[in-house]
Amino acid sequence: MAATLKTCVFTVVKNTTAQQGISKFINYLTANAPSRLLHQDQTHQQASIAEPISRPSGRHMVTLVPGDGVGPEIMAGVQEVFKAAGVPVDFEEKFISEISPNTSSTLMDVVESFKRNKVGLKGIITTPTFFKGGVLQTLNMRIRRELDLFANVVWVKSLPGFTTRHNNLDFVIIREQTEGEYSALEHESIPGVVESLKIVTRKNSMRIAKFAFDYAMRHSRKKVTAVHKANIMKLGDGLFLQCCSDISKLYPKIEFETMIIDNCCMQLVSNPYQFDVMVMPNLYGNIVDNLAAGLVGGAGVVPGESYSSNVAVFEQGARHAFAEAVGKNIANPTATLLASCNMLNHIHLEYHSKLIQDAVLKVIKSGKVCTQDMGGYSSTSDFIHAVVNSLP
């Protein structure tokens, strides 16, 4: 490039002294280009998009947390599919549970495994409804905070061949999941009066907003919708909304809009096609995740994933342990299978990911093997075997 530039300049400038001066200037620009790039404006550097974790060739170690309810049954099916597909992954299994503490690993043992392997596949850990003393933070909350899993991503996409009320849906819900109403800061000030604190910080609001816009850029999405209740919680949700607005100015090619959470729920069931990428605080995200999952078939078909700067954890998008189905062999493994495919993409095993995903979609599209939630009579085992038989 520098040589071409020199030729063009020298054809215009005939003076030898001028030629030498221009030559020195061009050489300086060429030599210092990398250093100039390193000293770009800090805002533009922060707007860069992180790549998935790069892993060495050979076999990959992945942390596996089976979870409660039907989690262990479904994870056994996933391992069967992986074995049949020849996926070069070894699982480091860590069972942790809040309702079965006697057989549970310690929190730090699980956290260290995630940190060591950088990636994990996780079932749903049941959280008891009633407080019986002890720590208010649930195991799920403590794992997310120890790993700083600040961003939860749920891709809501209609499955080919599985007809629901709304078809051809394709949008993404991004949720901040380390603060908000899930701060576990509650106390009974006087008998019969409980105060519960909702924590919103500029740091985490800016971080999740930037994550949402980066995601939109990377996946060629056109619009980001910030969901809030700033008309009532003017300071807390107002801060979140302001952070989203500030970040949006760095991405002029992406449309930005805001929507109040109650209107958002109505719009989701009446016209979900208007959404592309949605970003919201913790509690709203939990509600919208489950509502949106119902639009495309329920908790059994929607995958999810959570990210920190160093760790990625893949699980169901709608978090239900389905304890009432334990031992009945009726749970739908689609969500966990698709989450495992996303995990394989993340560690650059794209070939095996596509192999399994194509097999899962082929089984669903045929309509011959459907679990009860999909309107059929097939068992979990039937579905897993059908996927294995659909592998090339």
Automatic annotation (TrEMBL):
One of its GO terms (biological process) is tricarboxylic acid cycle. It is found in: Mitochondrion. One of its GO terms (molecular function) is magnesium ion binding. It holds the Pfam family Iso_dh. The keyword Transit peptide applies. Keywords: Mitochondrion, Transit peptide, Tricarboxylic acid cycle. Its main location: mitochondrion. It comes from the Eukaryota. GO terms for cellular component: mitochondrion. Residues 61-387 form the Isopropylmalate dehydrogenase-like domain. Belongs to the isocitrate and isopropylmalate dehydrogenases family. NCBIfam families: mito_nad_idh. This is Isocitrate dehydrogenase [NAD] subunit, mitochondrial. It comes from Lymnaea stagnalis (Great pond snail). The lineage of its organism: Eukaryota, Metazoa, Spiralia, Lophotrochozoa, Mollusca.
